[in-house]
Amino acid sequence: QIVGDFYLKTATRNNKTEYSMQAENIISLLDGREHKGGFYDSADVEYVIKNEIFAGLDVKVDTSKIKGQTITGWLPYNTARNSLAQICFALGCIVDTSFETGVFIYPYDESQEPAEIPDDLIYANAEKIDQEEIVTGVKLTVHSWIKDAKDDKNELYKSILSGQTLIKFDEPHHSLSIEGGNIVESGDNYAVIAGDGSQVILTGKNYQHVQQVVNMEKEHVYRNKKFSECTDATLVTSKNAPEVLKRMFEYYTNNQTMRATIVLEDIELSDIVKVNDF
Questions:
Q1: Cβ proximity of 231 and 141 under 8 Å
Q2: For 156-169, how does the pLDDT look when each residue is reduced to its tens digit (9 = 90+)?
Q3: For residue 177, which of 196, 157, 149, 147 has the smallest C-alpha distance?
Q4: What are phi and psi of 155, to 5 degrees?
Q5: Helix (H) or strand (E) holding 175
């Protein structure tokens, strides 16, 4: 049976007949790919994943289960893996590469009936239960951006430049302009500029970053409150914040974790299971 597609990363020959090899799957490879990001306004998520995140990679990406869904917000200049994580966090999606050839991206189904893992499929003395600190609620930052209409521009680059260079912005900028050189390519998060050996100055205008915090907490808790917070999910807007907040609440307030060595049989990633905790 196929366990998954893996790519050789390092290998060591220990002796005449023995090798030690380290491999990674396609999601790990996304750590080595840059994603330019930018602003998205009801962008088709299938298009973004296939034509930006996995562009140029010879891998099957099945996004049929999230067909028609969209994303709105901003993604920074980052690795393709981090951008994919932001997308899936905003939509509540699973990224699955197990027991198949390719990548399957689908929504988490919380309505499914739990599948029971019988005791004889759990290795003896292999169970551990971790009780984390009690969490009584969650806080989520909702983001929006507005173009700053002021005439003030920020200096994004100033140096002697011969040839081309890539400038990455810590925050998005618009209305870029350049002195002493040319803008070859640009976006909200970056600019590729060229110079002929003289001083080049690149400037741009800010976006106003508006942030609002929403929260959800357990009822009848009046003292010793503890919140888990998420502040950097930049694809969370006022439109999808309620469902993201609900998912966060259900995840972080279930703070008991069980670890065990089990035989999977028909159980797959994202299945809800019922296990005897003895």
A1: yes
A2: 999 999 999 999 99
A3: 157
A4: -85, 115
A5: strand 173-179
Measured from the Cβ of residue 222, the count of other Cβ atoms closer than 10 Å reads 7
Kindly list the distances between the CA atom of residue 75 and the CA atoms of 92, 150, 156, 223, 259, in Å, as whole numbers in the listed order: 17, 24, 19, 37, 34
- Per DSSP bridges, beta strands 19-24 and 78-79 are unpaired
Asked whether 61 and 103 are in contact (CB, 8 A), the reply is yes
Q: How far apart are CA 33 and CA 56, in angstroms?
A: 11
Give the residue ranges of DSSP H helices in the chain: 26-29, 45-48, 80-91, 241-252
Query: Residue written as tokens 């914040």?
Result: 241
pLDDT at 203: 95
Reported in sequence order, the residue ranges of 17-136 that DSSP labels E, i.e. its strands, are 19-24, 34-35, 38-44, 61-62, 70-75, 78-79, 93-96, 103-107, 115-117, 128-131
In the structure encoding, which two tokens stand for residue 135, read together? Answer: 């969490």
Q: What is the pLDDT of residue 267?
A: 83
